[in-house]
Amino acid sequence: MAKQNVAEQFVDILVRAGVKRMYGVVGDSLNPVVDAIRRDSAIDWIHVRHEETAAFAAGAEAQITGRMTACAGSCGPGNLHLINGLYDAHRSMAPVLALASHIPSSEIGLGYFQETHPDRLFAECSHYSEMISSPQQMPRVLQTAIQHAVGRSGVSVVTLPGDVADQAAPEKSVETAIVTSRPTIRPGDAEIDKLVEMIDAADKVTLFCGSGTAGAHAEVMEFAEKVKSPVGHALRGKEWIQYDNPYDVGMSGLLGYGAAYEATHECDLLILLGTDFPYNAFLPQKDVKIVQVDVRPENLGRRSKLDLAVWGDVRETLRCLTPRVRPKSNRRFLDKMLKKHADQLEGVVKAYTRKVEKHTPIHPEYVASVLDELASEDAVFTVDTGMCNVWAARYISPNGRRRVIGSFSHGSMANALPMAIGAQFTDRERQVISMSGDGGFSMLMGDFLTLVQYDLPVKVVLFNNSSLGMVELEMLVAGLPSYGTTNKNPDFAAVARAAGAYGVRVEKPKQLAGALKDAFRHKGPALVDIVTDPNALSIPPKISAEMVTGFALSASKIVLDGGVGRMVQMARSNLRNVPRP
């Protein structure tokens, strides 16, 4: 048997750790590793057109599967292109192993062609970033990197000079055990005792849920029923907590809707469950006691002053907590918030539902509503940052099977298409829909060719208003005229067809449903270029200044108060138990 080189050993360890794919762009310093992957049937090399796409795709695959995924870039500019996608994966708590190949080891520190210092550059967007200097060092460094990525749910970066990758691996390398899954964490008895005491003493309890409630839907519902608590959520908590939820009062934050803000401010006790919600201006500053439950202790108390910090994952905490709290019988606060939630949703939904089927250019709210109705029950939606975030937050209905992922913490443009690539590779039969804005799509449009190259059946639904809509909104809020926000776009459907994919352009509302159905039926990649109203946000519903709470700049609240799709029906259905006068 031929002796392994370091690159082959590196790939073997990745395979043992459960990595199925490595996304990247080939290059000279990376060649030994890519060649090792070529000869290993257990792992695939996914050739993308830009390394930023590689990192976004790896992060998306990790979020969909819960498994560590890998990406790679060649020396200097190649691996530097990874950095934005790695920032996103890290802030999304996606376990990703990034390989930054490096210049020849003998030239490091001498100003060599394409020289950078990856082990320093990636330190801020990773839990672990280290350079391998010798074959003997590689197995332990890679194992440590894997355990950081998996154990702390984030990015690890390994820098590997190309000449070291090509050297012979040590003959007697020890195959140590590799951590590939995380344990559950239970809070201490003292924290549970104190939390029980606080809940029993409170008359009005509100739960505010984030992505840390993944896998804990049943436990949250059981607890909410026992203490008669309204349940609000952050954007990243929407897909995990909003469905089958008779206690739902909507979402708080810049894209918020419904009564979540009121429920968090009018309670006696606010319990933050698995959320690192970044907008502390939307959290109560006084008169409300706050408890935070989080599996990451560094998140505890960094957004608001806490009366109790509980270190533990949400499901295990609630399993300990629910049997011990006294059941509450008074529903007055819960019912008040449910009614307020339904009333607020009905008050704003009318602004964008009158005659939308006839409005040209097409209302983007109408597009999102039709998309929600036609998409599969287990669809994966990847969402561009900007106004697509608004439409997804307000119109895409979670059901426990759908997934909605985006750059919700890092807030990067151009994320939807690359994330769709990673999501689709996990299951070619599952419907994956990229909700792309024209600004974000055109930024990394080259990787539409990746869909064609691999015949990935991603459906790109392009909200094409020929502008950077969210930036225009930000300028409006600041009292500035919009400037530099207009895009001169091609016919994107024609571009898709020229690339070898299915493409259709929609300019009238009556064409929309048929075009989406045809694209969804198409077996390969498809793009639906929908010309949407660039002035949609400039035609706000009538709203008084008194209705604006929690947002320092009221103009943004006005333009964000659009429709909220099927959530009105969901809210009204939750009122069935509210006593009628």
Would you give an account of this structure?
With 581 residues, this protein is α/β, with parallel strands linked by helices. Helices cover 37% and strands 16% of the residues. It is built from 24 helices and 19 strands. A 7-stranded mixed beta sheet has the order 10-9-8-7-11-12-13. Helix 16 (387-395) links the parallel strand 14 (380-383) and strand 15. The protein starts with 5 loop residues before the first helix and ends in an 8-residue tail after the last helix. Mean pLDDT is 90; it is low at 538-561.
The overall pLDDT average reads 90
User: How large is the radius of gyration?
Assistant: 25 Å
Q: Main β-sheet, in a few words?
A: 7 strands, mixed
Q: Count of helices?
A: 24
**Broad shape:** globular
Look at the helices and sheets and give the structural class: alpha/beta
What is the topology, as strand order, of the major beta sheet?
Answer: 10-9-8-7-11-12-13
Strand content: 15-25%
The stretches of 5 or more residues where confidence is low (pLDDT under 50) are 538-561
End-to-end Cα distance, whole Å, is: 83 Å
What percent of residues adopt helix (DSSP H or I)?
25-40%
Secondary structure tally: strands:
19
Keywords: Pyruvate
Protein name: Pyruvate dehydrogenase
